[in-house]
Amino acid sequence: MLLTTVFPPPDLRKNFDQEPLGKEVPLEQEVLLQCRPPEGVPQAEVEWLRNEDVIDPTQDTNFLITIDHNLIIKQARLLDTANYTCMAKNIVAKRRSTTAAVIVYVNGGWSTWSEWSPCNNRCGRGWQKRTRTCTNPAPLNGGSFCDGQPFQKITCTTLCPVDGAWTEWSKWSACSTECTHWRRRECSAPAPRNGGKDCSGGLLDSKNCTDGLCIIFTPQDYATGDVALYAGLVVAIFVFIVILMAVGVVVYRRRCRDFDTDITDSSAALTGGFHPVNFKTARHDNPQLLHPSMQPDLTANAGVYRGPMYALQDSSDKIPMTNSPLLDPLPNLKIKVYNSSTTSSSPGLHDGTDLLGGIPHGTSASGTFSYLGGRLTIPGTGVSLLVPHGAIPQGKFYEMYLVINKAESGLLPSEGTQTVLSPAVTCGPTGLLLCRPVVLTIPHCADVSSSDWIFQLKTQSHQGNWEEVVTLDEETLNTPCYCQLEAKSCHILLDQLGTYVFVGESYSRSAIKRLQLAIFAPAICTSLEYSLKVYCLEDTPDALKEVLELERTLGGYLLEEPKPLPFKDSYHNLRLSIHDIPHSLWRSKLLAKYQEIPFYHIWSGCQRNLHCTFTLERYSQASTELTCKICVRQVEGEGQIFQLHITLGEHANSFDTLHSHNSSAPTTQLGPYAFKIPLSIRQKICNSLDAPNSRGNDWRLLAQKLSMDRYLNYFATKASPTGVILDLWEAEHQDDGDLNTLASALEEMGKSEMLVVMATEGDC
After folding, report:
1. What's 44's domain CATH number?
2. What average pLDDT does this structure show over 130-159?
3. What is the distance between the alpha carbons of residues 65 and 68, in angstroms, rounded to a whole number?
4. 362 in the same domain as 476
5. Sorting pLDDT into bands at 50, 70 and 90, what band is 634?
6. Do 743 and 395 form a contact (C-beta atoms < 8 A)?
């Protein structure tokens, strides 16, 4: 009996499972057109048409067709305004989806303001005007017109011109020998200003002052007396010239005789019989002391010119030489990259202890990782770095580190109304070649239940400036990372190592920041004074850990479990007060009724370890019991009350130990020990979900089930979208991670075969 294999007949259904929808998008925005082709035998191939022309992403890189057949326009251009059609075809037939019209519109933008017009009033108060037009750019394809006014007016005042005017004439002067007297006036009543006219008329006035008694000579009288004077002057000049010429002749003859004598003397000098007094023989000891422009003569008897010697430039103009370096020394970091052939001869390769020699203990971790990956954790801080399997090139070993930066307030990236929500964390070294993203986990103190937040991830450049990496919910295909935000931490998929910090800003001043209040007291009190410190900290593990270590060095201990406090972006300060002190035994040294911490000191997040101190004084050393109440609240906001019962000298029940139990946790995990999902199970899940299918139960549904679907295009651009999602799951569940949550998601997806694999190979 012959067995025959029955193949289903070729077919292609008519209706698409999902068709693209028309959209109106602004210029340069990303556009996603979805298409799920009909089922067919064999499976249909998908092409996209723009105005009936086939789209080729290799020719136009602004287009991207994902593995699940969606079309992405990376940055919408005006020329992308068109009709788009999804076409599916196999050997049986072709099917076309409904046409989706994409309209790329341009919102209007204002041009720059024109120059202010001249003041319309030439004298006194008026106004000036400037204009702008909605042409930068002009609205297109239904884009909105510019908001605001096309002109502005301001008042102006032009100074009025003032014409000059004369003062009164002065009194007449005394009568002069010429029988005249004078008077004057000034152009200063008022003086001309602001372009006014000058005074017309003369400044001086004169007149005869003897009523004709003075004898007045006529010009003819003066001319007759001057003739004799001029004649005598001409004769005197002639005689002077004759005498001068005679003296010149005598001098000339004497010089001719002296010239003959000089010739004779010069001949004698040439024969060595005479040396002029301004020439001397050269010194043999140091010929370089001569004038620097003269070439030294090495002969013993040569005559050398002894010109004036000039001092060198004063030493005060020289650069002072000190023992201090011109640049600050770099941290004691040793960064190495090993080839697989050299690891066997490198003792202590995995401890990484020499990598962070200059970093304070408890704020860093380091280790050496290979192709198998691993995890760095800073205990008690909530900061970790997951290096996935395959992130490091095969055959390479990277020494990597993780550091919490205790930066000064001026170095943190808070700007305007932004607030720093996490510690600044450095993962390095920078510039490493990574084959897949690593996952950096940092804690934050934002109340994410409030929808008023604008979250940003920032990185620090080599110049020390803070630059925006991504604003959440505004990602594009060019965004270099992905942020998975949870209630108290943020998991960041990174392709580049560096220094990162998480910041936020509220839309309408209603965002809430989580704070924690911690009260410390001295462990030993030998004086009459007793101080209670109330710390106001961000609600992150690293902030509390830092204060615990600080107070431990100062001899303080934690009185009660820290309490949370919601702090609202409302400009209101934080107010602290102490009440119900037993006044018969204690008194408060606080002069005011309360203390306040300014709003911005808290909201900016740039100032660490903010606290207020209440100093009490007991009347007797015998008083060892203290009961009081401390109230902490934001003005017109939330608050907390601490009811304290303290016995001085007894702190056996200190809460310090409750927050330091994990300080000895391992900081470095290597290879399979760092991951919850066994490698074999992981590979089978990826093989099952990476390929898209028409029912949609692929990696996209897994991301949705695990609440990682905020921006699926990031995963779609990766070689294994499922693998990146599982890396993110590993980072989220590093503390409580068993495979039950993942198994539940796979079960809801209908992937029962994966449950069998996990049950047989994993620990579910």
Report:
1. 2.60.40.10
2. 85
3. 8
4. yes
5. very high
6. no
Report the half-sphere exposure of 586 (CA within 13 A, side-chain side).
Answer: 22
414 and 433, same structural domain? yes
Is the domain of 484 the same as that of 342?
Answer: yes
Task: Give the DSSP H/E element, type plus range, for residue 220.
Answer: helix 219-270
Position 467 pLDDT exceeds 80: yes
Give the residue from 105, 133, 157 where a domain finishes.
105
Of 160, 168, 162, the residue nearest 197 (C-alpha): 162
Q: pLDDT tens digits for 13-27?
A: 888 989 999 999 999
User: DSSP characters for 661-683?
Assistant: TTTTS-SEEEGGGG-SS-HHHHH
Q: Are the C-beta atoms of residues 708 and 677 closer than 8 Å to each other?
A: no
Amino acid at 116: W
- CA Rg, the chain, in Å? 47
Residue 23 sits in which domain range?
11-105
Left, alpha or beta for 464 (phi > 0: left; psi -120 to 50: alpha)?
left
Please check whether residues 465 and 545 belong to one and the same domain: no
Tell me the two tokens of residue 552: 């431990």
Span 298-331, pLDDT tens digits: 333 333 333 333 333 343 333 333 334 333 343 4
Shared domain check, 594 and 552: yes
Asked whether the predicted pLDDT for residue 248 surpasses 50, the reply is yes
Residue 394: give its domain's CATH number. Answer: 2.60.220.30
Angle 743-748-753 from CA coordinates, rounded to 5°: 60
Count of beta carbons in the 10 Å neighbourhood of residue 24:
13
Question: What is the average pLDDT across 599-622?
Answer: 90
Q: Contact 422/502 with Cβ under 8 angstroms? A: yes
3-state secondary structure of 730: helix
The answer to the question of residue 495 being in a domain is yes
| The pLDDT of residue 633 | 95
Neighbouring CB atoms inside 10 A of 395's CB total 12
The 10 Å Cβ neighbour count of residue 613 is 13
The pLDDT value recorded for residue 323 is 38
**Does 536 share its domain with 645?**
yes
pLDDT of residue 656: 62
Q: Phi/psi zone of residue 492: left (φ > 0), alpha (ψ -120 to 50 degrees), beta?
A: beta
Residue from 606, 608, 604, 578 nearest 590 by CA: 578
State pLDDT tens for residues 172-181: 888 877 788 8
Say whether both 458 and 476 belong to one domain: yes
Q: How far apart are CA 36 and CA 20, in angstroms?
A: 9
Rounded Cα distance between 425 and 402, Å, is: 7
- Which residue, 506, 541, 560, sits at the end of a domain? 506
- At 53, which amino acid appears? D
Total tally of structural domains belonging to the chain? 4
In a domain, 268, yes or no: no
C-alpha span between 643 and 630 (Å, rounded): 7
CB count within 10 Å of CB 159 equals 10
Distance CA 207, CA 186 (A): 19
Q: DSSP secondary-structure letter at 99? A: P
Residue 384 in any domain: the answer is yes
Please state the separation of Cα 199 from the chain's center in Å. Answer: 63
Residue 470 within a domain? yes
Element housing 85 (H / E): strand 82-89
pTM > 0.85: yes or no: no
Q: Is-contact 638 631, C-beta < 8 A? A: no
